[in-house]
């Protein structure tokens, strides 16, 4: 995957150039509702650092950034009461996963039966 594109939509959200429906923020993490929700609850959790994908984040981010992202995802889920009925966390990486925005993000899906885990196009 190419280098970080500073003009991607999440970079613009982080710079405050376009708005988001914020759910959570700390020193390392911003979370906001997806603009095109696939489930009743659909939150995106992103690092504030410039990481293209999960591959980039997992190899290059500091332990503090990695811990912050997963702690934040857990806190958001708990604060919304999601563990009671369940939820799904997903990260798309690259072409085959149909990653659209080249800034690493976790999706949190909840609020309905989430169906089968994946339905691949073989
Ligand atoms: P992915 O395919 O994993 O890269 O997912 C990108 C997600 O970003 C999609 O679910 C989009 O609906 C969402 N998205 C794109 N632009 C925005 C935006 N301005 N605010 C919130 N979510 C967005």
From TrEMBL:
The record's listing under CDD domains reads: PKCI_related (cd01276)
Molecular function GO labels: catalytic activity
What residues form the catalytic site here?
105 (tele-amp-histidine intermediate)
Gene3D superfamilies per the UniProt record, alphabetical: HIT-like
Instruction: Tell me which residues make up the HIT domain.
Output: 9-119
Chain location of the short sequence motif Histidine triad motif per the record = 103-107
Q: Name one Pfam family in it.
A: HIT
Name of the molecule in the record: Histidine triad nucleotide-binding protein
């Amino acid at each position: 995957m190419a280098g970080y594109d500073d003009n991607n939509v999440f970079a613009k959200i982080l710079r405050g150039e376009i708005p988001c429906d914020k759910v959570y923020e700390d020193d390392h993490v911003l979370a906001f509702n997806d603009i095109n929700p696939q489930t009743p609850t659909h939150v995106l959790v992103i690092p504030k650092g410039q990481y293209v994908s999960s591959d980039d984040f997992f190899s290059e981010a500091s332990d503090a950034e990695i811990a912050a992202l997963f702690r934040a995802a857990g806190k958001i889920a708990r604060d919304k009461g999601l563990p009671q009925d369940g939820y799904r966390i997903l990260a798309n990486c690259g072409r085959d996963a149909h990653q659209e925005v080249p800034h690493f993000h976790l999706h949190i899906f909840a609020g309905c039966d989430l169906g089968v885990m994946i339905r691949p196009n073989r």
